[in-house]
Structure formats: structure tokens, C-alpha cells
Amino acid sequence: MSSTKTALKAIDAAIKAQKYEETVWLCEKLLQGDPKNYHANIFLGFALDKQSKYDDAERSYNTATEIKPADPQAWQGLIRLFEKQNGNKLDQYQRAALKLAEIYVRLDDKYKCQDVIDKFLGCAKKEGSRLQYRKAQEIVLPTSPIYDYLEGRIPHPAFTYQSIAQILEFEEKERINKEIGERRTRLGARIGQVTLEVKREVLRDSELEGLYSKIIDWANDDDIRRQYEEKLLQRCMEALTFLLPGPERDRKRTKVLKLASDMVIIKHPFRLAWDIAIEWQDPECIQDLDVNVLREYCAFFPTNGLTQVLRGYMSSEISPFPPSPPTHPQGAQDIPSGNVSSDSDADDDDGGGVTIARDSLLIGEDRLLVMVDGISSAPSSILAHRLMGEYYQYLDEYESTVELMRAAKRVIHEEVTKTGISFKNSSDAILSLLGTALVFYQSPKNHPEAKTVFEDLLSRKPTSTAALIGIGLVYEEEEDYSSAIDFLERALQRDTSNVRIKAEAAWVKALAGNYAKGKDELELCLPEMDGKDIRTRELLAQTQYRIGVCIWHTDTSKTGRKDRSGAYSYFIAALKSNRNYAPVYTSLGIFYADYSKDKKRARKCFQQAFELSASEVEAAGRLARIFAAEGDWELVEIIAQRVVSSGKVKPAPGSKKKGISWPFAALGVAELNKQDYAKSIASFQSALRIAPHDYHSWLGLGESYHNSGRYTAAAKAFQHAETFENETQKINSGETWFAKYMLANVKRELGDFGEAIDGYKAVLQVRPTESGISIALIQTLVESAWEGVDKGLFGYAVQRASQAIDVALELSRTRPDAFNLWRAVGDACSIFSWVQDRISGFPHGKIEHILKAGGAENAFDIFTDVDGVGVDLVFARGLYPKDEEKGINLTRCLHAAILSYKRAIHSSAYDVHAQAVAFYNLGWIEFRVHTCLSSGLKKRFTRYLKTAVRCFKRAIELEAGNSEFWNALGVVTSELNPKVAQHSFVRSLFLNERNAHVWTNLGALYLFQNDIQLANDAFTRAQSTDPDFAHAWIGQGIIALMTDNRKEADLLFVHAMEISDSSSLITKRKYSQSIFDHLISSKASSNIIDLAQPLFALKQINSMDPEDLTFYHLSALFLERINDIELSVEILSRISTIVDADYEVTESSASLSRYALAKADLARSQLAARQLEEAIESGDLALQLSAEDAGNELSFKARQKCRLSAHLTVGLAYYYANDPKTALDYFEPALDESNNNPDTVCLLAQVLWANGDDESRSRARGLLFDCIESNSEHVQSVILLGIIALLDKDTESLKAVTTALEDLRATHNLTHQEQTKVSEVLRSIATFSEGSVVQNVLTEIQTDLLLHPSQADGWGWLADFGSDDYAADMALKTAMKAVPPHSALDAIELSNAFAGTKTVGNIQKAIFVAPWSRAGWEALSDSLTDGQ
Residue 493 pLDDT > 80, yes or no? Predict the structure, then answer.
């Protein structure tokens, strides 16, 4: 014991000397011997504390507290230790402080006890976090063991709980924001769902509800207590919102309702509590609510939305509550005005103690305005929606009721989701109001929905009177009266005293046809209705009106209906009961219109009825007919649109009630008049959905489609109209012709002119005096004629033009002043100028009668002083020479067209636009006359061209904004004044830059001025604007020719020909000329398929312009190439005759040159036709005329070709005439003319060899050797030399020829015919060569196959040779692959391939392919012989 004291003294001395390491050593040494020494542990802890070894010091102090827990020294040491650690050991500090405070409690030292607690709380507040401080404050709560001892010295529990609550509120808010921020970044996270989950988790762990309750329990201040009661209610309500369905949610809802009810009981003006207490009651009837509570609510929250609705409802006629007293509510007197809620969301609503005005002061419109304002401020109030819905239904504001009740359904759904309360009664009431409103709103459109609503209501409440009545009304509107009676009688059984149901049931019986019984039952209802009661006044008017209707239908005689003591008296009585009852005005309007013959009163009644209710369809229909008769289509449209918007016109799906189509039809007509075709189409379609057999709606739909450019749909519509016209037997009414007429118009627009013409003719049979139809027929005939010109159907075009003139002749007798008549006649006459080979069929006699119609001779004097065109030539009679007849007829038709257009100008004197068009048409026909003049008479500036310029200028003066007029002026001035032409084209493009014709004309103008770049740009722009306009491609082709790019030019001309119309002469000319030039320059032989299209083009050129001898001559050259020699001779003979006659008259060198060329070509064709003497005569004449001193204009190259052709032709003619010596006299000059042309050399060699003498044959060999020496690749020369060597058996020459032929065979430059000849010569040489003849020939055939395996000839030779059984099949396969368009295999070669297989089927095919070929017939004969 003494040693322990000694040790303690040493320790104490070390501490005083601040030798803390020594102190630690001494303490540890002492504790080794006495571990339970209290003072040693304290000193050790102190020394370690001084050395900042806090953890070791804490352990030492803890050991000391375990040894003596009631001694304050160790706890004081711990507290000092914890205070130094800046809040790191705040939890341990709290424990130590509490223990030390308890020790002081036992020691009864309040000062030290309070000091410990105050220091701890100060340290926690300063050094700790908010949560640590919140926990630290628990030490002074009533649950703390020191609370009772220090009560009064520490903060009041209410204050402490408030401080803790504020900390928790802040922490929860921070946690919510943090969690939402973290979770919303996850994949697939949605902010709404994340917020819900986070708040649910936070509220689940929250302690705030308990804290709020404790504050309420401990607070002495009423304001604080009320404040935290509000917070507790809000907190519980929020927790209820986020809780999942279950027992816990039910408990929470019960707690919320109790809290709210308690606040209402004590009349605390907190709006949320009152809203919950009132809204959650869910009364079955409004009168079940406590009216005192409602009035107190209004007193406390006068500006709230629900308050305004309540005020309006409770002051209305339908309120089940007694009038409010004129005093303040008791609760409002008890609560001072300054006692307001702390709810920040309801600052404007929670100022209690406000005196409200008496509800009875709200009347009429003021009440409705207050309630509407209130419902907009209470969007989540179920009660407000319910009250407002009942009031709307009372006012018959069905549209507003429907919208509001649909919103109420959403509100109920949200409240059910939020609170878990079913709101069954409110939901049923909302459904009842919605269904009833749907019955009348846009009836019958919403009937299916209304029926669904009522059926849903009946499924829950089978005896629901409102649902039974509602379904009965639906069936009544749908005209299913038996079902309506059933439901209404069931409802009447539930409520026998309801006079409304009685009256409705009686009315349905009347509608079912039993008017007498309905009238009797309605009359029984009258005594039960008080006219002074505003709630039954409308029902009384309705019942009186219905009795009047029953009387109206009971006595349908004219006398009975005119009786003013009958139905009329009841109508007047109903009007006195309710001046705003619309059906009464409709019935009175019918009475005045049909029986009283007072149209003025009738119109006013109909207007009043329709103004009061858009559902008065009968009144609307009568009004629409009145305004339509007056031509006021704007009012018709307004009426029809309002009727459509009412929803009365379309029956509900499954309804027996028929729809009403006239409003849609009226809308369609009005929109058609406004040219709003899209809307008119939609309107007529709606009308036809309701009335599919409405003839006039089909007409309107077709006309709308037609005017909007949808011609196919228009045609179908008019065809439907015709179908229904026949079904409804309206043909005799005289009104159905319009459908046929419009269908013909549509067919005309679609280009189906044949059906259009037939349609117009059919209408004219019914309406022969309709001049408009006759004009349409004439115009269609003319358009059909132009189509024939465009398609190359020239006979058809002339036929249609003649028919147009025939119809015009009939019309001119009755309507000689019609502008379109004369324009169409002018077009019909001009058709003949485009098909000049049929000009003889021009009906000038009929045209004379047409022009004389109307007696307006002065009409032809327009521009007569300029163009000199009068009636003399057109009216002239007499016989003309045959050679002049065509020219006379052409001039007649052109002058007739000019006179017709002049007459059109006279007829359009009062129409500026028509007159401008007439001058435009006259200008074009004047220009047409200018271009139709023969080339010999055409001048640069003729009187016709001058007139055309004047006409176009006049047209521009009348209508300067027409781009076509400027384009026309540019065309006619292109040669006269290029600057004016350019200005005109540019102006036209300014008005319409997407006109490819104008761009092409501008390009042509630049081309005339040799500006190739600008011309190319203009043609390119035309191509991009309209790629199918052929003339732009022709312009590009001409530019390509000018820039020596012939290949591109050929491609452009071919493309232009493919896309052009048959009326385009320049396209055909350039195309045929290009094809012929290509054939001349090509080494390959021409194929008849390639020549078919240019031949057709040339044929059309000849039809349109028979005087164009150049291309007529060209057609003969094409015919020569397809071996149509007879027609070629005929054409060339005719050309020679015409040119000879022209030369006799003009003696021009040009005619002489053309005559020489024609004779040269004629000689060649005559030679091919074996007309040897004629060929010699023509050839000799061509040689004479083509001589240099003959006076022709032939160029050197043309003369050389002409004379070469003539020499060769005459030489061959003499040769075939068995006069080879004379033939040689022509061949020798031909050789000189051709500069030793290889083909000429070959021809001369063959003639020399045919002479038979050695000298001639020797000369032939020499010519061929010389030719091969200078033209080693000339195949014909080598072949001829090989044949001569074979005949001479010249072995050395054969070797050289064989080598040359083998070299040629291996090249790819040979044509198929040349390749075949080379192979034949090589096989012939192999036949006469040494060795095995069979093997040599087979080797040649195999070599041909190796070099040209795709040619059928080689396989055919192999099959004929007999060395391969499959060679014939291969020959057929290769031949099938070589037919056009893949290759140029002809019919004979294909026939030979079929025949080579020696099968009966293929032999028949061979005969079918080429019946003129002997191979097929011989194969068939052999096959039949072998079969026998």
C-alpha cells in the first residue's frame, strides 16, 4: 500500500514537472502491479492527453470510469479530451456529458449539471453537423434522465422539438434532391417515377410526423400549435399520396380524416382540412352535406374556387338547402381576422373572419359568371365539378356539361389514385350528368358513348333512375321507340311522382305513332306543372308544344291544320310559357309557310328557331332554301355549318334514325361557289355517306373533282350519278342531262374524246337548244382532231375537223355571235393546213355558209388593208386546173381560218380577255399562212407576217401579263428584229420562267445570231424545265452539228424523235436526215427494222407537207434500201415530173440540179426493177444534166457522186442487156470518177471476167491485184481474186489468197456477211487442196467455230457436213440468241437453223418464220419422204 502511494506521489511530481513521458512510464509500471488503480488510470489518461495520444488517453479514462463509474473525475477527463477533438467524438461526448450530468444530479449540483449540458450543446452546435446537433438535443428532451432535474433551466421541449423538426425538414429536402439527381441519370429512368420512389423512401423513414405531434402536445402557444397541426395534416396527406395500397395506407387515411375533422370542429380556417372534410364525404345526394359546414367554408375562404361554386349553387333555383341567414357565421365571429393559415399555397384563401354577401343577391348571369370563375380556380375539386355539372344541366348547357364532366372523371381518377377513396357516389353522379348531357349534345353523335355510360352506371346501380331515363332518351333519339318506352316506364315505376318522366313516356308513345294516346297522357301531366315555378316552366312549354304536335298529326287535313283553335293554340300557349323554346318557332314557321301563306312571318319564325337552337334542322333547311333562292350562299354556308356542328345530321352507329345529308350538300355548293374545291369535296362525301343515292350530291362531288383537276375521280362520280338517275327514274324530269354533260366534260379533260363526243351528242338529243353543249362538242371535235395530228392519225384528224364544221354549221344558224364558235371553226380550218395531203376534203361550201351566218360582213374588214384577206377566194366558185387545185384549197382553208378568227374578234368586242385571245389566235394563223407559202414565193417580210406582228401587239396591249402573247411576238419578230424578239422572250420568261417553249424559242433566236454559247444555255434550261419537250433536244442536236460532234447530234435527234409528237416536222426532218447520213457513213449493211421508223417519219412529213420534195426524195432513197423498188420508182418519177415542170417555168439552176439528182436515183431504182431501157435513158439524162457545163448548181462532191451513180447504173443496165462492150464504156469513166474506188474496181473486174476473152480476164486480174495492193483490207477484192484463182487453178495465187483470207477471218472488223463469204471461199479452196478433202473442209469449219462460236452459220455447216449429231441443235441455239434486238440475224438464217434440226416441229417453225425460203419446204418434203 505504501509503495502505491509512493508511486502516486512520483507520478504527481512528474506531472507537475510536465514530464509526461516519465508520467506515462510510471503509470504503466504501477498499473502492471495494480491494474484496478483508479488514480493511475486517470494520471495515465491525463499524460497521454498532454502528448496528444487521444485514443490511448480515452482508453485509460474509460478504464477509470469502469473502476469508479460514480466518480466525476474520469468523466471530466473524457469530456476535456472530447472537446479537444473538434467534434470528431461528439457521440462519445454526449454519452460522457450525460453520465457526468447524472452524477451531478445525484450530488444535487444543478449548476455543474447545467454547465455540463450547456457546454455539450454549445460544442455540438458549433462543431457538429446538423444531424449530430439534432441528436445532441435529445439530451434535453423529456425522454432524457436529467430533464426532470433541470426542468426550467434548459429550453422548453416545444422549442427543442421545433429545432429538431427544422433540421429534419432541411435534411429530408436535401436528401430528396440529391437522390433524384443521382437516380434520374440511370438508363430508362423517368423523372416522375424517380421522384415518386425517392419521396416514398424518405417519407417511410421520416420522424417528422412524431415530432409534429410532440410539438403540438408540448406547445403552449396556440399559434404554434395550429401551425404544426397544419404541418402534420400536410405531412400525413403527402405520406398518404405516396403510400401503396394496403392496411398502412388505410390507417394513414383515417388519421388524415380525423386531423381534418378536428380542425373543422374547432373551426380552424385551414383550407386543406376543410377541403378534406367536405370533399371526402362523397355524399349520395348534395342535400346530405351539412349546410352549416358549407357556409362556414364560404365564410373562411371567400375567394376560393369551391366557395364561389357553392355560393352560386346554394343561391340557385336547384339548391336543396334553405336560404342563408343574413348574419355572420358563428365560426367567423369567434376567430379573429389576423388568425390566418401559414399555408403558403393558400395565402389568399385563409384569411378567416370575412363577412360574405347574401347568396340571394347572386342572380342570373352574375351567378353563372361567379360559378364559372370558381370552377376554373378549383380544377381538382370533385364537389365543385359536381355542383357545376348540375347547374349546367339545369341551364341545358350540354356542351359545357360534357366537357366539365369529362374533366371531373379525370379528377376523380386522380383523387382515387392519390387517396384510395373510391368516391363511388360522386362517380355515379358524374356519370349520370355526363350521360344525360351526351344524349342531347350533338345528338345523335354521342349516343353510343351516352349508352355506354348509362350501362356502366346500371351495372353498379340497376335501379338508377337517371340511367334508366338516359337510356330511354337515347332510344328515343335513335327512333327505337319500343325500347325507349320500356326504359322510361321502368324509371317511372321507380319514381311515380316524377312528372318529367310521365311527360317523356307519353311523348315517346306519340312518336311511336299513337298520337291520340300520347296527347291524352300529356294532357294529364299539365295539372301537375306550375307555370309560375321557374323549374317547371320549360317543362310546361315543352308539354304544351308536344300536345300541339300530337293534334297536328292527328288531324292532317288542311282545314284541321289551319284551325287556330287546334295545334296552333297549343303552340302559342307553349310560346307564352317559354319564349325561348325553339321547336315552337319551327312549327309556327311551318304553319305560316304552308297553311297561312305568310312568308314573312314564316321566315322570322324559322330564323328565331334556328337562332335559339342549331338542332332545329327543319327550320335550318327551310332557311337555307330561302337564302339559296336569293343567291346568298354565304348565309347558306353559315346555316349549314351550324347544323353540322350541332351533331344532329349524322346518326349514331347502329341507330335506326336516318341521317340528314342536305347540310353537307349545301356546304358543298357554297364552297364550290367559293372555288374551295378541297372543302367542297369533303362536304359532298359526307353528304353521300349519309345518303348514298343522292343524285345531286354525286353531281356536286363530280363537279368539285372536275374543277380541282381530279378527272378520274370526277368520271366515277358522274357515272354513279347516272346510275342513280336511272334507278330513281328521273329521266323524264329533264334535269338529269347535266350528269351526262359533266361526264362528257371529264372525258374531254382526260383525253377520251370519243366518249366525250358521244356524251355531248346524247345530251344534245335531249337538249338540242343548249348552245353551250354544241360549242363544247365543237371544241371537243377540234381537240380530238389536234390529238390526231399529234399522234399521226391524219385521216382521223381531218374527219374530226369536218365533223366540227358540220356541228358549227348547225349552231351558226342560232348563235352566230358566240366567240367560242368562231374560235373553234378557225381551229378546224387550220387542221387542214397541217394535213395538206388531204386538203382536197376541205368543205369550203359549208365554211361559206358558216361565214355568211349572222350577216356581220364588216367583221371581216379587220386588218384587211394589211393582209389583203377577204371573202372573195373563200366564196369563189368555179373549176380550177388539177395542178392548181391543191394550192387553191390550201389557200382557202387558211383564209377561212383567218376570217373565222376575225369574226371571233368581232364577237368578243365587250370582253377584253376574249378579245385578247382572239387577236392572239389571229396572229398565229397569219403566221401559219406566212410559213405555208412555198419556198419560191416566201419573202423575209410578207403581209401575213406584218399582220401577225400587229395582232400580237394588240393582244399584249389588251393583256400585258400574258406570257404566251410575248412569246408569240418574239417568234414572229425573230427574223425581222432580233432585239425586239429577245425582249419579248425575256418578258415572257419574266412572267413565267418555267415555260420550256419560250426557252427553246430564245435558244433558236441565239442560234440564228450564231451565239452558240447562249443558245446552248437556253436549250439546257428548256430541257431542265421540261425534259419531254422535243424541240429543246433538236436545238442541242443542231449545236452539236455546228460543233462537228455528229455522234452526239445523232443521239440527240433520236431522243427527240422518241419523245416528240407527230406534228413536229423539224423533229422528223432532222431525225430522218440524221439516220440517212449515219447509214451512208456506216460500213454495215442496213437492217429493215432500223429503217422502219425513219420511213414512217418521212411518210408523215409527206402527209403534212407534200410540197417538201427534199424529204420526199429522201423517202425514195430509204425505200430503195429496203428493196421496195416499185414505190421508189414511183416517187422518183413523180419528183422528176414536178421538178421538170418547175424547170420549164423557172429555168433555175437549182431545179436543174435537183432534176439531175432525181434522174440519177431514178435510173438506179429502174435498174433494180429490171427496167433496163428506162434506166439507161434516165442515167444518160443524169450524166448530161450533171456535166460541169450544164448550168447546174451541184457541188464538186455532189456532182462526182451523181455521175458515178449514173455511170455504174447505165453500165450495169447495158451489161444486163447483154451489151458488155457498151457497159465497159460506162465503167471506165466510173473508175475515173471514183478515183479507183475498190467497189468500182470489183464491179469492173466482174464485168471484164464475164466477157470471157483472155485479155479481159487478164485485165480483171490486174485490176484486182492493183486494188489489193493499194487496199489490202478490202474484203471483196480478196474474195474475187480467190475465186478467180480457184477457177484458174492457180496454186501460187491460191496460197497468197488463202493467207490473206485467213488473216481477214481472224480480225473483228468484218461484217457478218463478209465473214460468211470469207468462210465459203476458204472451204472451197480446202475442197480443191491436196490431201484428205473431208479433213481439210472439217478443219476449216472447226476453225470458223473456234474463231466465231456465237455465229449459227458455222454450226450449220458442221451439221450439214454430218460429223456431229448435236451441231444442228447448237446452230439453232446460237441462232435464237442472235435474233433482233440482240443481233442482226435475219428470218431466212433463223429458218435455216430450224430446218437444220430435221425435226417435224422445228421444220414447221422454219416455214412459219420464213415461208418464202426453200430450206423449210425442202426439209419438210424430205421428212415426209423419209416417213413414207
Answer: no
Q: Please give the Cα distance from 908 to 1286 (Å, whole number).
A: 88
Cα-Cα-Cα-Cα torsion 1410, 1412, 1413, 1416, nearest 10 degrees, comes to 70
Residues 1041, 742: Cα–Cα separation, whole Å: 50
Please give the single-letter amino acid code of residue 1205. S
- For 1246-1282, the pLDDT digits (tens) are 777 777 677 777 777 777 777 777 777 777 777 777 7
Q: How many residues does the chain have?
A: 1428
What are the Cα distances from residue 342, in Å, to 213, 299, 354?
Answer: 17, 18, 17
The rounded distance, in Å, linking the Cα atoms of 547 and 962 is: 69
Q: Which residue has the cell 356524251?
A: 759
Greatest CA separation found in the chain?
177
d(CA 917, CA 925) in angstroms, rounded, equals 13
The answer for residues whose C-beta is within 8 angstroms of residue 294's C-beta and 6 or more apart is: 278, 310, 314, 321
Scanning the structure block, which residue is given the C-alpha cell 506531472?
Answer: 15
Report whether 575 contacts 560 (CB < 8 A). Answer: no
> What DSSP element (H or E) covers 1354?
helix 1352-1361
Q: How far apart are CA 371 and CA 349, in angstroms?
A: 17
Strand-pairing partners, residue 1151, are none
Who contacts 1354 (Cβ-Cβ below 8 Å, separation ≥6)?
1319, 1341, 1344, 1345, 1348
pLDDT band of 730, cuts 50, 70, 90? very low
Which grid cell sits at 50? 498532454
Residue 345 has pLDDT above 70, yes or no: no
Partners of 340 in beta bridges:
351
Cα 340 to Cα 320: distance, rounded to the nearest angstrom = 31
- CA–CA gap between residue 365 and residue 391 (Å, rounded): 12
CA dist., res. 966 & res. 420, Å (int): 81
**Could you give the CA distance from residue 1368 to residue 1372 in angstroms, rounded to a whole number?**
6
Contact residues for 205 (Cβ-Cβ < 8 A; gap 6+) = none
Least confident of 72-86, 137-151, 218-232, 718-732: 718-732
Q: What does the mean pLDDT of the chain come to?
A: 80
SS3 category, 931: helix
Task: Give the cell for residue 416.
Answer: 382515387
**For residue 1030, pLDDT beyond 50:** yes
pLDDT in tens, 538-567: 778 888 888 888 888 888 888 878 888 888
pLDDT digits over 1045-1079, tens only?
888 988 998 899 888 888 888 888 888 888 888 88
The number of beta carbons lying within 10 Å of the beta carbon of residue 992 is 14
Residues 6+ apart with CB under 8 A from 855: none
User: How many Å apart are CA 20 and CA 827, to the nearest integer?
Assistant: 133
Task: Please report the pLDDT score of residue 1021 as a whole number.
Answer: 93
Q: Which segment of 827-836, 1111-1120, 1152-1161, 1291-1300 scores lowest on mean pLDDT? A: 1291-1300
Q: How far is CA 817 from CA 45, 271, 767, 917, 1403, in A?
A: 134, 88, 20, 16, 72
Q: Sign (positive/negative) of CA torsion 161, 166, 171, 172?
A: positive
Helix (H, G, I), strand (E, B) or coil at 351: strand
Question: What's at 1224, amino acid-wise?
Answer: L
Distance CA 305, CA 297 (A): 11
CA distance 4 to 27: 10
Torsion over CA: 1010, 1014, 1016, 1018 (sign): negative
Find the radius of gyration of the CA atoms of the chain.
Answer: 58
> What 3-state DSSP class applies to 340?
strand
Rounded to two decimals, the pTM is 0.63
DSSP 261: H
Q: Tell me 321's DSSP state.
A: S
Pair 990, 1012: CB distance under 8 Å: no
